[in-house]
Design a protein that fits this description.
flat; five-stranded parallel β-sheet; 4 domains; Rossmann fold; single chain; 5 strands; alpha/beta
Length: 391
């Protein structure tokens, strides 16, 4: 994938945000135990993560990187951050702790993670830097007392254009100025997306530009598989975001449970493909992701039933829905294996009854213990059993 192939290898190669990068470097040089953490905030594709990696390498620091939205509980963060927090100072210990996507700690689901992070920043013997896309999220606001914000902005169109021209020359592409300008406009300041558009040859004509909501809804309302595929290819974000938006639309829909189960099964297969692509960095396989979704998912529920509205489903809630679904699948997989049925069958036929049974604290605690689940699954089952009994 060109966005990875042409990721900057030095700060000089980065596009835009010179002021933000300079502020981060200055913060790091001045950091002492007890200082506030740096919080890089700005839209996706503006270079926050790349800046942290390059600065750490140039200053000879060992980077301890965690995705906060994946390590959402106090226990998980404690296990992963413990040694780094207790290590020696910046100039003696060579550690830089990086928490990415802190705005993915979704409200009640963080299980003490925000308070743990605040306490860790105060006690850490190594500098802590965080990154967030949404500066107005509740999680970012909660961390305000222990962080110093550094804003990252979308690069200027001329800067994006210059970078795309360099890549085009290296790849020996023949792209007109007009075509390049349309790619820059479609990316809307997201350099990573612009590079992906350039590689895929995505049409960037004005009448084909769609928002995330428009793309997803056009997919579910498509009259045939070819139209569904075109709608997916017009999606403006990253492949993982696309899968999440499709998932959100399906789980919020009122289609028949059997059809919903088929749709979730199709999304699960796409998620497995995406995971293998990311793990092996085999970006060539991305070309098969949209056709897979257009074939399997559209055939399952492509009749206009599911709808996606970005304003009605803010990103933190999307993330919580996504993570909660993984918990349901984990429980269904383990329990289904115990009783000799598939994960899918257990989700569709037995999970509603199991959730009702979990309203009983004794049953719930015994279930979590017998399945070897972590404590946060007990909290999750408590919440879901309450919803199930109210239906």
């Amino acid at each position: 994938m060109w966005s990875e192939k042409y990721r900057p290898v030095s700060l000089e190669e980065m596009v835009g945000n010179r002021e933000g990068r300079a502020k981060f470097q200055l913060w790091l040089k001045k950091w002492r135990p007890g200082s506030k953490a740096a919080l890089l905030v700005g839209p996706p594709g503006t270079g926050k993560t790349t800046t942290v990696h390059l600065v750490a390498r140039e200053m000879g620091l060992q980077l301890v990187e965690l995705n906060a939205s994946d390590s959402r509980t106090k226990e998980k963060l404690s296990r992963k951050m413990g040694e780094a927090i207790a290590s020696t100072s910046l100039f003696g210990g060579t550690s830089l702790i990086f928490l990415d996507e802190v705005d993915g700690l979704a409200g009640r689901a963080d299980y003490g993670a925000v308070d743990f992070i605040k306490d860790a920043v105060r006690k850490s013997e190594s500098p802590v830097v965080m990154a967030a896309n949404n500066p107005e999220s509740d999680e970012v606001k909660k961390l305000g007392s222990v962080t110093s914000k550094i804003a990252f902005q979308r690069p200027e169109p001329s800067e994006v254009m210059s970078r795309l021209e360099e890549i085009s020359q290296k790849e020996r592409l023949s792209v007109s100025k007009d075509q390049m300008a349309k790619v820059v406009e479609a990316a809307n300041g997201d350099l990573r997306a612009a590079i992906n558009f350039l590689q895929s040859g995505m049409p960037a004509r004005k009448d084909e530009e769609l928002t995330a909501s428009e793309s997803v809804n056009a997919f579910f309302g498509a009259v045939d598989e070819a139209s569904a595929l075109r709608a997916l290819r017009a999606y403006p974000g990253q492949p993982r975001d696309k899968i999440r938006d499709l998932f959100t639309a399906v789980v919020r829909s009122r289609v028949h449970e059997e059809r919903k189960a088929s749709a979730l099964d199709a999304l699960s297969r796409a998620d497995v493909v995406m995971g293998r692509i990311m793990k092996g960095k085999d970006w060539r396989l991305l070309r098969y992701l949209d056709p897979l979704l257009a074939s399997d998912l559209w055939k399952a529920v492509g009749d206009g039933g599911p709808r996606f509205t970005l304003d009605a489903v803010p990103w933190p809630l999307q993330l919580r829905i996504w993570n909660d679904s993984r918990k349901l699948k984990d429980i269904a997989g383990v329990t289904g294996k115990r009783v000799g049925i598939s994960q899918k069958s257990f989700l569709v036929e037995d999970m509603p009854y199991l959730l009702r049974l979990c309203a009983d604290a004794g049953f719930r605690d015994e279930l979590v213990k017998s399945l070897g689940l972590e404590e946060n699954y007990s909290v999750f089952l408590t919440k879901e059993s309450g919803r199930a009994t109210r239906r």
